[in-house]
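Why predict the complex rather than its parts? Because the way molecules touch one another can change local conformation, and only a joint prediction can capture that. The input here totals 375 residues.
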Amino acid sequence: MMDDNDLLASVREDFSGVRLDTPAEAILAEGASLRRRRRRRLAYGSGATALAAAAAVSGAALMPGAASAGGTHDAQLAAWTVREQPNGVYVTLRGLRNLQGLEQKLRADGVPAEVATGTRYPAACVDNKAMRPGSANSIFQLSTVPGQPGQIAILIHPAAIPPGTKLLIINPGVHGWPGFPPVPWGGAAGGARSGPISPVNIGLGLVYANGHC
Amino acid sequence: VDTDAAAFTEFYASARDDCLRVVLATVRDRPAAEDLVAEAFARAWASWRKVSRHPAPRAWVVRTALNAHRSWWRRRQREVAVADAEAPAAEAPAGGDPLLMAAVLRLPLRQRQVIACRLFLDLDTAQTAQTIGIASGTVTAHLARAIETLRGEFAHPTFKER
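Output of the joint prediction:
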């Protein structure tokens, strides 16, 4: 009869096909980026307490300066890329994984952002004024990536995000957007599929950055 | 720095698969587990001076990944009405015979975490308890129940054909 050690050995064998393929270089690059951001925060130091409090309230106004002070840096893991460019923050989406990491990276790069999954968001939270087409276009542009079918690119202008609001990137999950017209996405809702990796189907919007949204 | 990078790369190569297996056993979603573990390793590199001296660096990575998963999920549940908020169903990742793996993924959360920590990280009772955030006194009981359940699964006719 099989003893416990044999049983556990069999379990271990069954998991042998579970492997992490992310290259070490990508991990090292992202770790280095995290380290740079940490140093930058320390450089701003305790003397900036008042500024930090103000940034927490106004959201967009102070963060872009903090992000650009440390120079350009990229983060690239499997599902997405965030790159600081002279004309804004450029996001490429190949899949919708590690959404928390995407949100953190955007915030670190000066974009007050929330990355969410779901098919509903409180309509009262949407900044309808900022989401008028003319306004929205000055804040972000959504496009496909030339030569990369199924990928989505978003160019974000952090300085144009009105104080007190944040950029919402919302993915409806595998169920899509069943009967979801009420929230105005300013014509910016975008859909595409990222081919063999996973579906990329997102909505973009500006929502209030307060305790309720 | 080059020496550190070489040491980290060696650590990453030796630990990444086992850390992924433990996190997969917890979240039961392969893509999410991959991203959580990749992010946790990036954090490990960012804090390599501290992590390299940790008594169980693999456990540090797994705990970081699980903490990220917990905090993110809690926040999402609070802020967004998520249509598909149910935990993803256990799927059989590619590779190997998935029958016992699927049986592990069907175990209650603590049982599958404990057995994964024991199997893939070779942690003792105290380290296992610390990694997954439970009382050390309950680790042995969870492990015993997990093994008992798996033994029952193994006695199933499907397994006898193996």
